[in-house]
């Protein structure tokens, strides 16, 4: 059964380029409610834990280095059909292939620096949300 929550992270490139407010505005304007929000920094060991599913892939080291290169904004979002709707809102991982008006089309610079992370399943949304937020930090 699908849930109505997803997890997102505004990545270091989008934070550095000053897009936090615009991205959060796009998210809320699309009908998502912010349940939890945190501005933080991922040390490399925590970034490695978060992306452990990719540990055997050739880009893992670069991904961990990138994600620990600066602050991020983590959030749990709520909306009916949250996972699918958010994946549509953020667009293709490659911003050159992302539909016009999507977050990655507007704010990402490359497939590696693609502005935002979005959960790909209900199970991963729960795992990722729990990685960043306690029950006391959700509203």
């Amino acid at each position: 059964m699908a849930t109505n929550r997803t997890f997102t992270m505004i990545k270091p490139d989008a934070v550095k380029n000053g897009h936090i407010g615009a991205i959060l505005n796009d998210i809320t304007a699309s009908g998502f409610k912010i349940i939890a929000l945190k501005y933080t920094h991922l040390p490399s060991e925590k970034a490695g834990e978060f992306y452990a599913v990719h540990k055997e892939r050739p880009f893992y080291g670069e991904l961990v280095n990138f994600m620990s290169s600066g602050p991020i904004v983590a959030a749990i979002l709520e909306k009916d059909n949250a996972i699918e709707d958010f994946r549509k809102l953020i667009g293709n991982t490659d911003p050159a292939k992302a539909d016009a008006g999507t977050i990655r089309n507007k704010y990402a610079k490359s497939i590696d620096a693609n502005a935002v992370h979005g959960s790909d399943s209900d199970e991963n949304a729960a795992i990722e949300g729990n990685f960043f937020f306690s029950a006391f930090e959700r509203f």
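The mean pLDDT is 96. DSSP finds seven helices and four strands in the chain.
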